[in-house]
Amino acid sequence: MRLGHDHVRVTVPATSANLGPGFDAMGLALGRHDVLDVRAIGTDTTEVSVLGEGAGEVPLGEDHLVVRALRAALDLVGAPQTGLLMTCTNEIPHGRGMGSSAAAVVAGIAAARALISDPEALDDRVALRLATQFEGHPDNAAPAILGGATIAWQEAGGARATRLEVHADVEPWVLVPTERLATKRARGVLPTHVPHADAAFNAGRAALLVEALTRRPELLLEATEDKLHQDYRGDVMRGSVDLVHALRERRLAAVVSGAGPTVLVLGRASEGDLVADTVAELLDGAPAWHASCPGIDAVGAHAERL
After folding, report:
1. Cα end-to-end distance, the chain, whole Å
2. Cα 172 from Cα 158, distance rounded (Å)
3. 162, 150 contact by CB (below 8 A)
4. Which residues does 276 contact at the CB level (< 8 Å), separation at least 6?
């Protein structure tokens, strides 16, 4: 395998995983993006500059997660390594449960795909499996690659995913706090065993969520109920869990986004300003939160050859 291009631009979306009952399996791509400009150069130099989220915090050389993923992808297909000049313009918040690490990994793989002479060697299936090796589970990587809503799973040959066509009336909102929470800490408070009845409850709700997302958005409130992970995380993100309960009491389909502490509301466009008004009421006097309606990214990661 050889390199076929030397300058690419990659766009990759934020994602929200779990969506309530779909723990480690379901995810949604959101209309907030990181954009990377990548040049392959004929030296051993690797230079990374970061604008926006993560600036002044993340590594600026070989340890940068995008660079690590890009190099792993080149190695996987037998392509030569190269020096890199990379500029990252980031919109995805770090440490907030919006898939920033998955976006970085997927962006690196997408950049490698665009640089090599045979992009099909890093098709979506290969990309998902490689991204899952970095992430440990495919729930964020799948929507980052495929766009829309996804169901992901793992089997002997690696991770797989299928894409869902989201109903046009589904309108996601994200409520992002200023505080951060490491995924490792959020997962660390989960029990090693759960009651059989709770597992059965979530299996039913996850199945219902597929119907709600694709055909019957009026079922989103019931379909996003969860007994496996959210309440257990209250000790490390009490504000987020309390906000989820307050929103649900007002009949809005709110969940913790990924490992948190961001809160995702799966609203309905046909309900007009209901979500905006309710969120404004609940967050009145709480400047530590920022609410927005980013929309759904239906495309997933994509690259331009420049």
Report:
1. 20
2. 30
3. yes
4. 173, 291, 293
Cβ contact 111:267 at 8 Å: no
DSSP labels for the chain? --B--SEEEEEEEEEEE-TTT-TTTEEEEEEEEEEEEEEEESSS-EEEEEEETTTTTS-SSTTSHHHHHHHHHHHHTTPPP-EEEEEEEE-SPTTSSS-HHHHHHHHHHHHHHHHBS-GGGG-HHHHHHHHHHHHSSSTTHHHHHH-SEEEEEEETTEEEEEEE---TTEEEEEEEESS---HHHHHHTS-S---HHHHHHHHHHHHHHHHHHHT-GGGHHHHT--SSSTGGGGGT-HHHHHHHHHHHHTT--EEE-TTSSSEEEEEEGGGTTHHHHHHHHHHTT-TTEEEE---B-SS-SEEEE-
pLDDT in tens, 51-103: 999 999 999 999 999 999 999 999 999 999 999 999 999 999 999 999 999 99
Residues 29/13, Cβ–Cβ less than 8 Å? yes
Q: pTM higher than 0.90, yes or no?
A: yes
